[in-house]
């Protein structure tokens, strides 16, 4: 069993900074979960507490049913006894060692025999695509290869859980995209449990079974990538995950078709069909959010809900789509329009938004 359970975790630095504020979550065995959030949100501190590199002020951490940390019970197992693999942002390559020596370091520290070390190192290097490079000087490898050395070192001794602290952030964009899939496939092939830290929303969306969005030391939302993107819990999550429009409004009538929201800045009533599980009183101030790709251009008077007329303020061609600002009433809506359309400033357009794509936020 390699389930990770974090309960009521608290970590502060001095009297002023509460880095982790009483958070709880679990990572199932074999699951790939990402802690996502901006710098200073507490994601790396949480990871370091699990690894044993930081001592929490309170709360408990257990893996596979074994208690690693407990403030109330005075338990704090040292890192070397947790049997976890960790891959850092820096490659942590020892320059005086070969590739094989770098990978074997943890195994030797555990007292493994020479034959066992050789076999596990060779297997780990094959897994990460570095077979036959064991005798090379590790610092002579490319950045992507050095990150693979770091990964091989983490998986060589078959850890209970793999912990990743922004491991791809030092790679160039195309290599980073390729490494995302390689890393996820490796973790799944080895049937390992993984907890991954990043501030890169796209990375979290591509790699994760579930995403834990954090802000100011607290958890804002937990969910799979699809629900986190399309059903954000609040305006922070909506704005942090991808690009969106967030507009103020007043709640109106609710019926089987959705919730009618009066949006003065658009000069329109918008029917919203998502986020309606929240208790929202008639007349309450609300926010609604809609993604740019869910606003569709159409012919005038085509019928249906949420019809809007606007004028293009800005249009930037990005090949696959136009990234536009379209003036509607007193505000600009961000709209992504297919690349084969012709868009330019001053063009009048008609748009519609499916109610199912309009999410009501209480905050």
Describe the structure.
The protein is α+β, with helices and mostly antiparallel strands and 363 residues long. The chain contains 8 helices and 21 strands. Strands 7-8-9-3-10-11 form a 6-stranded mixed β-sheet, with helices on both faces. Strands 2-1-4-5-6 form a 5-stranded antiparallel β-sheet, covered by helices on one side. It has a 5-stranded antiparallel β-sheet with strand order 14-13-12-15-21. A hairpin with a 4-residue loop joins strand 5 and strand 6. Helix 2 runs parallel beside helix 4. The relative contact order is 0.12. The mean pLDDT is 91.
Concise overview:
Helix content is 23%, strand content 37%. With 363 residues, the chain is an alpha+beta fold. The protein has a six-stranded mixed beta sheet, sandwiched between helices. A five-stranded antiparallel beta sheet has the order 2-1-4-5-6, covered by helices on one side.
Task: Provide the descriptors you would attach to this structure in a database record.
6-stranded mixed beta sheet; 5-stranded antiparallel beta sheet; 363 residues; alpha+beta; globular
Shape: globular
Percent helix range: 10-25%
Rounded to an integer in angstroms, the radius of gyration calculated over CA atoms is 25 Å
Number of helical runs? 8
**Assembly state (oligomeric):** single chain
Arithmetic mean pLDDT: 91
Give the biggest sheet.
6 strands, mixed
One letter per element, helices H and strands E, the order comes to: EEEHEEEEHHHEHEHEEHHEEEEEEEEEE
Q: What percentage of the residues does DSSP assign to strands (E)?
A: 35-45%
Pick out the low-confidence regions.
Answer: none
How far is it from the N-terminal to the C-terminal residue, by CA? 39 Å
Strands of the biggest beta sheet: in what spatial order? 7-8-9-3-10-11
The helix/strand class is: alpha+beta
Give me the count of strands: 21
């Amino acid at each position: 069993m390699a389930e990770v359970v974090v309960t009521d975790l608290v970590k502060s630095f001095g009297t002023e900074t509460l880095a982790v504020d009483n958070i709880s979550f679990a990572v199932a065995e074999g699951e790939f979960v990402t802690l996502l959030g901006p710098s200073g949100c507490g994601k790396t501190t949480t990871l370091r507490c699990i690894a044993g590199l930081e001592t929490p002020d309170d709360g408990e951490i257990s893996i596979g049913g074994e208690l690693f940390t407990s403030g109330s019970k005075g338990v704090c197992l040292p890192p070397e006894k947790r049997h976890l693999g960790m891959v850092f942002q820096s490659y942590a390559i020892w320059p005086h060692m070969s590739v094989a020596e770098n990978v074997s370091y943890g195994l030797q520290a555990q007292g493994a025999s020479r034959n066992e070390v050789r076999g596990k190192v060779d297997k780990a290097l094959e897994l990460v695509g570095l077979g036959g490079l064991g005798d090379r000087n590790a610092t002579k490898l490319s950045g992507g290869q050095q990150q693979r050395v770091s990964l091989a070192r983490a998986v060589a001794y078959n850890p209970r859980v793999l912990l990743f602290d922004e491991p791809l952030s030092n790679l160039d964009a195309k290599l980073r995209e390729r490494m995302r899939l390689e890393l996820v496939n490796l973790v799944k092939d080895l049937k390992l449990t993984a907890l991954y830290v990043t501030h890169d929303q796209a990375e979290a969306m591509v790699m994760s079974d579930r995403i834990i969005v954090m802000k100011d030391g607290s958890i804002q939302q937990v969910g799979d990538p699809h629900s986190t993107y399309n059903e954000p819990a609040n305006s922070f999550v909506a704005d942090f995950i991808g690009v969106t429009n967030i507009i103020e409004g007043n709640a109106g009538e609710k019926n089987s078709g959705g919730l009618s929201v009066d949006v003065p800045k658009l000069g329109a009533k918008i029917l919203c069909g998502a986020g309606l599980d929240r208790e929202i009183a008639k007349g309450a101030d609300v926010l609604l959010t809609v993604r740019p790709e869910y606003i569709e251009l159409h012919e005038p008077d085509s019928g249906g809900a949420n019809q809007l007329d606007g004028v293009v303020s800005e249009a930037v061609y990005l090949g696959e789509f136009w990234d536009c600002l379209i003036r509607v009433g007193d505000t600009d809506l961000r709209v992504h329009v297919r690349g084969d359309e012709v868009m330019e400033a001053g063009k009048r357009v008609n748009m519609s938004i499916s109610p199912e794509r309009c999410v009501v936020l209480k905050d």
